[in-house]
Amino acid sequence: MSARLHALGILKAYLGGKNEVVVETGNTVRETIRALDIPPEIVALVLVNDTPQSKEYRVQDGDVVTLMAVVGGG
Amino acid sequence: MNGYGGNILRVNLTTGKIAKEPTPPELARDFLGGRGFGAYFLFQEVPQGADPLGPENKLIISSGPLSGLLIPGAGKCDFACKSPLTGGYAGASLGGHLTAEIKYAGLDSIILEGISPKPVYLFIDDDRIELRDAASLWGKGAITVEKALKDQLGEEFQIACVGPGAENGVRYAHINHDYGRQAGRGGVGTVMGAKKVKALAIRGTRAIPVADLDAYRRAARNLYDACKQSELLKPWQNLGTTMVVSWCDEVGALPTRNFSAGSFEGGKTLYGPVMREQIVVTDKGCFGCPSPCGKYSRTKRYGTNVEGPEYETIGMIGSNLGIANIEDVAQINFLCDEWGVDTISAGGAIAWAMECYEKGILTKAETGGLDLKFGNVEAVLTLIPQIAKREGLGALLAEGTRRAARALGKGSEKFAIEVKGMEQSAYATHSATAMLLAYMTADVGAHHNRAWAITYDLQVGRELVNADKVARVIWLQHIRPMFDTLGACRLQWVELNIDLELYPPALAAITGVERSWRDLELVSERIWNLTRMYWVREVPGFGRAWDMPPQRFYAEPPKTGVTAGKITSLDDVNKLLDLYYEQRGWDANGLPKPETLKRLGLDKLVA
Questions:
Q1: Integer Rg of chain A from CA
Q2: Where does B238-423 sit in CATH, by number?
Q3: Which of A10-14, B36-40, B181-185, B429-433 has the lowest mean pLDDT?
Q4: Structural domain tally of chain A?
Q5: Which chain B residues touch A56 with a CB distance below 8 Å?
Q6: For the whole prediction, is pTM greater than 0.95?
Q7: What is the pLDDT of residues B65-121, one digit of tens each?
Q8: What are phi and psi of B432, to 5 degrees?
Q9: Looking at domain B433-497+516-606, which of 2.30.40.10, 3.30.470.10, 1.10.260.40, 1.10.599.10 is its CATH number?
């Protein structure tokens, strides 16, 4: 039972430069990114299977979770 | 001159004289274009003490060396004048397609001087340049006028026009273009209205000379490829600036009820994905844009079409007014666009009035019977036309928050959320010291355009005050406005994260002059110090006090949300300024030192 987490832009640095890691299911996105030492407050957008979701979304088997940081604003 | 239209157009509205002069090469060398040209002409030509609404003020409309070329988002146009809102420098940036036509018409800047004896619009079709009667357009809404002129002249003409707010002297009237893009801040539209110029209609057909065509093609291709290959492109294009609504709400930066808090209990109804699902019809981009972030929307309830709302508008006339419905925000946005007033300043002024009402400082006797509580949509829908027409309470709010608070008194100055007289845009800065400093020191007043540092606050520690943070703000104040100087959009760099180093080869291929980012930062620093000296020249006693933030951000911690109880101390505010002045080469009162001006080659200009 696993899902994939994909970090975009500057968030890659938190994955040791990797684009993607495998994560456990059953946790919220917030719990998942905390476990990866990514500060939740710098993640601006969470997409799950290309659909925007909140950080309280509970990760399910087969999900592709994509994280995007706010870089520089409008 | 490679990369330039080659001419400055002067239009004396008092006499009707229209004249072109060659763009001075040394001006292009030292100030590049766009924002640089605007700041230079303003400082050099508008006499000290000029009335912002009088004939001595000038409206300077400038393209940059990248404008109109195959560079991502090369549609940025700069509007500069003495601000009727702040009394200092006004510089507003407009997207869309206008600046490309300016270049194709062989122009770099258009300088509107004097005041026309009757309403006119400026017609430019290459060398055919005329002031045309605009009596039939006067009094009409900005979106309506743009459509009327497009219908009359043809789609190839790019239109920039003002609404009734500008005609009636609202101090934060904007200039509309492309059905909902604006040069929004500081009252640049007010100055155009005061000059009795209802619109600009421009078409050009000339080619822009380029120094090295092959190198230009390669450099341009590299820029576009980087944009298209960015993995950030798809989510950015999907939501545009509305992406940050939920984030700001989460981190306590979403202005709520006149910036009394940074998180809004009704915020979820305003989030980007909700807006996308409920009202967005299509994406909309500016000239040459590979990542169209504009959202064109239609409201079912009101049956109106509007570009946006953008994040800033959602913050300022949504959460900051206690309004929790995206259709209502879109409708208020539409009214601001049509009546011709800046959504950010209008939102700030109305939020201040709502707080006055809830505190009993304003009563129904002054509001004309409006129940001006936070969240009252109908009251806001009524107030926007009143502001534009200067009727009832609208006459007070049309003056801007600082003047309105000073006129009303009764302690309302304490919650006037502005710096230098400009209403703060949509980031609550109770606990975000870099963003607070960015607002305190922006050269037009409290606007986010110059430095957007709030993510940096979150990354390094939002309450931290140190030299690195200050240096980051200054670096942003040099890099971001450089895009407004070059005449291209910064968002491909900011949001798609493309490499800044892709730009200098393109600029060199176009102009034939090699410039590194270090060179460009020096030009930006020159412009920054020139606009600072404009404030020094125009505002008696200008100095440190003008850089102080609204009291709310150092004396009133929010009671709700994630920033509840958090506040930047007054000591830290002063420490931020001390560090900032030191790094800028300014004295303790915030005035550029003579050696700083000399290093930047400004000593003779400002003498």
A1: 11
A2: 1.10.569.10
A3: A10-14
A4: 1
A5: none
A6: yes
A7: 999 999 999 999 999 999 999 999 999 999 999 999 999 999 999 999 999 999 999
A8: -165, 85
A9: 1.10.599.10
